[in-house]
Amino acid sequence: MISKKRSMIGEARKGPPLFEVKQLSLVFRQYQKGWQESRIQAISKFDLTIHKREIVAIVGASGSGKSLLANAVLGILPENAETGGVILYEGEALTPKRQEDLRGKEIALIPQSTNALDPLMKAGKQVQTVIKGKNKKKIQQELFRRVGLASEAGDQYPFELSGGMARRVLVTIAMASHAKLIIADEPTPGLDEHARDETIRYIKQLANEGKGVMFITHDIMAALEIADKIAVFYAGQTVEIANIEDFAGKGERLRHPYTKALWNSLPQNEFKPLPGSQPATGTTLDGCVFASKCPLATTICKQKQPQDRSLNHGMVRCFHA
Predict the structure, then answer these.
(1) What region, left, alpha or beta, does residue 84 occupy, with left being phi > 0 and alpha being psi -120 to 50 degrees?
(2) Which residue of 32, 58, 195, 255 is most buried, as measured by CB atoms within 10 A?
(3) How far apart are the first and last CA of the chain?
(4) Tens digit of pLDDT for each residue in 257-271?
(5) C-alpha 219 chain-centroid distance
(6) 8 A C-beta contact, residue 285 and residue 279
(7) pLDDT given at position 3
(8) C-beta separation of 281 from 42 below 8 A
(9) 305/303 Cα distance (integer angstroms)
(10) For residue 30, what pLDDT is reported?
(11) Half-sphere exposure of residue 315, counting CA atoms within 13 Å on the CB side?
(12) What are the percentages of helix, strand and coil residues in the chain, rounded to 5?
């Protein structure tokens, strides 16, 4: 099954990527005392590529800028935000006008909170609102069947649904939207094991149907269960893009020291927590964002930012990889 999916992804990669980000930056303008404007850098040098049928997980600690990335792609940032770099969807620039036209149609969000459901509208109706054409109720009921929801759930309001049922409704909305790109923003935190496994299975189903999926999470084990590759996010930067197979042993095949530390901090591995915290948002650094905590750091790491380079079928930003 895995080899079959890889074959299908390989076929999809022969054409242009479904979604591509090149050197994305995100800055927030704010005013200090005396009306002096300051600029806070939240994301810099972010790169990512997603093909049809591919799930790419973006893994990083809380506060690393993962959800801001989702908002940047959807074009729902506040007015004081400025973005740089290039975002391409099906080979064309994702301009603000195009973001507005495609949002909720070809690019859909599975939000972190089930509170995103309209509390005053029955679950079935919420799915039907994104279905085009006729027979909306019939299509909605078939989608509910596919994700394991009883037809009666369509007549219930969100407060009458369990957490797992509400998440399935959110996934169903994404399926019904006919979107080609799905952004799943932290869809598993707070779920019990059964609901978590169900959510992962439904998102896999979306990819199997030909969609590309950006799976945003701080749960590396969930990422390993669902993704085809993992983009490791640290202090607003992509420090590594690794293949699932690289996460094995003591992380010998991983390229960046942060990714190795993240892997070895898991209970089933060496359980060595990484001391300290990542640089605060807006911190200006001349060198590598991980230099202050890196056991391999040298003078150049503190003076100069490493550029991304291909290595062992992945990408890394590190002078010593």
Answers:
(1) beta
(2) 58
(3) 33
(4) 999 999 999 988 888
(5) 11
(6) yes
(7) 56
(8) yes
(9) 7
(10) 82
(11) 19
(12) 35, 25, 40
Distance CA 73, CA 26 (A): 11
The answer to whether 185 touches 218, Cβ cutoff 8 Å, is no
Q: Which residues contact 41 (CB under 8 A, 6 or more apart)?
A: 25, 26, 27, 236, 281, 282, 284
pLDDT-based confidence at residue 65 (cuts at 50, 70, 90):
confident
Domain ranges of the chain: 2-52+64-103+233-316
pLDDT at residue number 101: 94
Task: Look at 36-50, 71-85, 86-100, 124-138 and tell me which has the smallest mean pLDDT.
Answer: 36-50
Round the average pLDDT of the chain to a whole number and report it.
88
What is the spatial distance between Cα 320 and Cα 239, in angstroms, rounded to a whole number?
13
What are the structure tokens assigned to 113, written together?
Answer: 């909170």
| Local structure of residue 288 (DSSP, 8 states) | -
**Residues recorded for the chain:** 321
Amino acid in position 75: G
Amino acid at 285: L
**Domain 2-52+64-103+233-316 homologous superfamily, CATH:** P-loop containing nucleotide triphosphate hydrolases (3.40.50.300)
Per-residue pLDDT, averaged over 65-78, amounts to 88
Closest CA to 64 of 239, 288, 319, 183: 239
What is the distance, to the nearest Å, from the Cα of residue 154 to the centroid of all Cα atoms in its chain? 28
Q: What is the pLDDT of residue 251?
A: 92
Our CA dihedral for 86, 90, 93, 95, rounded to 10 degrees, sits at -110
Q: Provide the token pair at 305.
A: 């930012």
Residue 228 pLDDT > 80: yes
